[in-house]
Design a protein that fits this description.
Blueprint (H helix, E strand, L loop, with lengths): L11 H4 L2 H6 L10 E7 L6 E3 L7 E3 L4 H11 L3 E6 L19 H13 L4 E6 L13 E2 L2 E2 L2 H16 L4 E4 L6 H11 L6 E8 L6 H6 L21 H13 L3 E5 L5 H11 L3 E5 L1 H12 L6 H13 L3 E4 L5 H5 L1
Parallel strand pairs: 1-3, 1-4, 1-12, 4-5, 5-8, 8-9, 9-10, 10-11, 11-12
Antiparallel strand pairs: 2-3, 6-7
Helix pairs in contact: 5-6, 8-9
This protein binds ligand PBG.
């Protein structure tokens, strides 16, 4: 019970000295709390800055070790791979997603060969980096097909798992995909591959810079509101999570992050399952641009990240993860 009364109780007493403030801290951050997203691009010897995300780069396969070494040295447990596929390789069906020589597959093999199991690798399961229309699923007369899409996602999952992916992260929001992917993995002796479901993923304007980074911004036709969630809803997020847990999700993601702390908190309280938060590209770019313009102090980054822990997140996907040493200090 929370109780007490002024003047015998003065909460400022505990805040008076720095040593005392340290003792009463409820939440802290460590590199263990982070997942680092890495953008992949084709070619050789390239590290391209993404103009809408200052400080974030795309790497060619032969330069990947630069960023993976950094993640390892910092003590970050997992990276997440996102490919920028050439427009010439995109088609209506997202065929490139099933090419065993696509960017993600090549990166998986490279990283597993070099680093073994020193660091976890997570891959999105969705078709948007590969489709000419930019949608996460197959489209027929302006409708995103659910069950037909899942059939492709199953194959994408199996391929990525066979190439060395540790954690499959379906980010497509099709109904029923977690159960079907789990079943296919188990049938193919891939029962140890984990599933992190983007269970509560909202149709959000905060994804803009990411779509720029993976090259789907100009190609996206329409919006994703028929599969991603309405940001006015929270009960619906709990229903999504319930289904995904029943279907076999090992962990769930809430996305975007900061505007959805209430969702993180209620999922954690109700389900006691590992909950991850995704501090998405738009959150990153807003903050980074404001800091570069001296509108807010760089300490805002630390504050934004601790907020996820306070809300109950176990880990955070953040484009700041590669600089976490400086942020924590
Ligand atoms: C694609 C996907 C998106 C993000 C991660 N996976 C974008 C989208 O759904 O359009 C967004 C990440 C970010 O904005 O940082 N399924």
């Amino acid at each position: 019970m929370i109780t007490g009364k002024y003047p015998s109780l003065r909460l400022r007493r505990n805040r008076k000295q720095s040593w005392s403030r340290k003792l009463i801290q409820e939440n802290t951050l460590s590199p263990n709390d982070f997942i680092l997203p890495i953008f992949l691009t084709e070619g050789l010897n390239k590290r391209q800055e993404i103009s809408s995300m200052p400080g974030v780069y795309r790497y060619t396969i032969n330069r990947l070790n630069q960023i993976v070494d950094k993640a390892l040295k910092l003590g970050i447990p997992m990276i997440a791979l996102f490919p920028k596929t050439k427009n010439s390789k995109k088609d209506e069906l997202g065929t490139e997603s099933l090419n065993e020589n696509n960017l993600v597959c090549k990166a998986l093999q490279e990283i597993k060969k070099r680093y073994k199991n020193q660091i976890g690798i997570m891959c999105d399961v969705a078709l948007d980096p590969y489709t000419s229309h930019g949608h996460d699923g197959l489209v027929k007369s302006n409708t995103i097909l659910n069950d037909e899409t899942i059939e492709v996602l199953i194959n994408q999952s199996l391929l990525q798992a066979e190439m060395g992916c540790d954690v499959l992260a379906p980010s497509d929001m099709m109904d029923g995909r977690i159960g079907k992917i789990r079943k296919a993995l188990d049938k193919n002796k891939l029962q140890n591959v984990q599933i992190l479901s983007y269970a509560a993923k909202y149709a959000s304007s905060f994804y803009g810079p990411f779509r720029d980074a993976v090259g789907s911004k100009s190609t996206l036709k329409g919006d994703k509101k028929t599969y991603q969630m309405d940001f006015r809803n929270s009960d619906e997020a709990l229903r999504e999570v319930t289904l995904d847990i029943k279907e076999g999700a090992d962990m769930v993601m809430v996305k975007p992050g900061m505007p959805y702390l209430d969702i993180i908190k209620s999922i954690k309280e109700k389900f006691k399952i590992p909950v991850f938060a995704y501090q998405v590209s738009g959150e990153y770019s807003l903050m980074e641009n404001a800091i570069n313009k001296n509108l807010v102090n760089r300490d805002a980054v630390y504050e934004s990240l601790v907020a996820f822990k306070r809300a109950g997140a176990n880990a955070i996907v953040s484009y700041y993860a590669d600089r976490i040493d400086k942020i924590i200090k």
